Amino acid sequence: MNLLVVGASYRTAPVAMLEQLAVAPGELTATLGRLLAQPYVREAVVVSTCNRVEVYAAVTGFHGGLGDVCAVLAAQAGAAPAELANHLYVHYEGAAVEHAFRVAAGLDSMVVGEAQILGQLRDAYHAATEADSAGRLLHELMQQALRVGKRAHAETGIDRAGQSVVTAALDVAATQFDGGLTGRPALVVGAGAMGALSVATLSRLGVGSLAVTNRGTDRAVRLAEAYGATALPIDELTAALSTVDVVVAATASTEPVLTREVVAAALERRRAGGDRARRDAPLVLLDLAVPRDVDAAVADLPGVLVVDIDGLADAVTEAPAAADTAAVTQIVVAEVEAFLTWLRGADVAPTVAALRGRADDVVTAELRRLAQRRPDFTDEQRADVAHTVHRVVQRLLHSPTVRVRQLAAEPGGDQYAALLRELFDLEVPQTSGADVVPDLGGER
């Protein structure tokens, strides 16, 4: 089987396209099932975040696998494959491994070096494991990608700046107010991973009153208590919007949470209030969700600034030191080569096992014929003959099988396994995910 990555990210697609492609948590199992139902796809992991939607797949052929994955993505987006073509990137085999490791290390993130992608990759891997859609190849790829990401953060200063999508968005918001965000009342809509990071960051920046709202009240309450914020019911959203200057929206909703009607009503309350400073200050809405939490029509309302993922891509200017980026790149290059060496060796192992199995079958058959022709042999004589024949066969096979493993570990080594199968007419069964015990922690 071969590795294939097909996806779209903030680099290749606008938010509107990422919204169409986005796979909500509740849809993930069904999407994985649709991928596995395709004729060329044997394993699948789907990563869907605010910045990217990617399918990692083990396929039996490049063109067939690409067509299968694109068909599923097109159905997810409700678009024709041709409409997606200009927004998708494709990586195969070694390039697919390199892409996975670069993503895990934060080199492909909007904010280079951010660590949140590691958690998102881990969640995607967990989901694939639960759905039994990750087999031997993707278990190893995901585990090693997570390990590479951890190495990058532990051994370099790639995340020294401590930036994330959240901090980048708040930097944009700070430019709208004299004195930045200090003392400014803020609201976070959503209590998931992005919402929690937003609450933590706002608290550290010293904003004024800080509130959290979420469809699940319990999560909002727990998050608010952890940071001394206030938890509000979601049905009080309009009232909450009228009393704050900054809103971070980061829910998993498939429909806009901040509709034009809700925001317009909040602005009306804001203008009717007695606080002149509040009336004159802009309402900054930071939409970090894909699909978007803020209705596109909200941007037309006077007194509102909406910043979404598209806007952030141009606003992110801070980057890690070149030396740190270079160090992480070196880690990725070395780890890719190590993975490809393992992969080439793993590909030939079943073939070697099949060859030895074929030899054992031949020896067993010949010893059975000998026993029929020479019934006068004692048990001891038969054992001596069997031992001698087995030793001869094993010694004959030893050097070729050791050498083919060595050759298979070199670039282009997959041809040697194929030649063995052709020469000896070997049938090599595919290894399934059930043969692997996954390590969900990401460590080797």
The percent of residues in helical segments reads: 40-55%
Tally of helical segments: 17
Termini Cα gap: 22 Å
**Order of neighbouring strands in the sheet with most strands:** 7-6-5-8-9-10
CA radius of gyration is 29 Å
The helix-strand sequence is: EHHEEHHEHHHHEHEHEHEHHEEHHHH
Structural class: alpha/beta
Major beta-sheet overview? 6 strands, parallel
Please report which band the strand proportion falls in: under 5%, 5-15%, 15-25%, 25-35%, 35-45% or over 45%: 5-15%
Report the strand count.
10
List the quaternary state of the chains: single chain
Q: What shape does the CA trace take? A: elongated
Low-pLDDT residue intervals, each spanning 5 or more residues: 431-444
Mean pLDDT across the residues is 88
Can you lay out the helices and strands and say which pair or pack?
Layout: E1 2-9, H1 15-21, H2 28-36, E2 41-48, E3 52-59, H3 62-77, H4 81-84, E4 89-92, H5 94-105, H6 116-130, H7 136-155, H8 165-174, E5 186-189, H9 193-205, E6 210-213, H10 217-227, E7 230-232, H11 237-241, E8 246-249, H12 260-272, H13 276-280, E9 283-287, E10 304-307, H14 309-315, H15 322-373, H16 379-408, H17 414-424
Parallel strand pairs: 5-6, 5-8, 6-7, 8-9, 9-10
Antiparallel strand pairs: 1-3, 1-4, 2-3
Helix pairs in contact: 1-3, 5-7, 5-15, 6-7, 7-15, 15-16, 15-17
Protein described:
This protein is an alpha/beta fold. 54% of the residues lie in helices and 12% in strands. It is built from 17 helices and 10 strands. The longest helix has 52 residues. The C terminus is likely disordered.
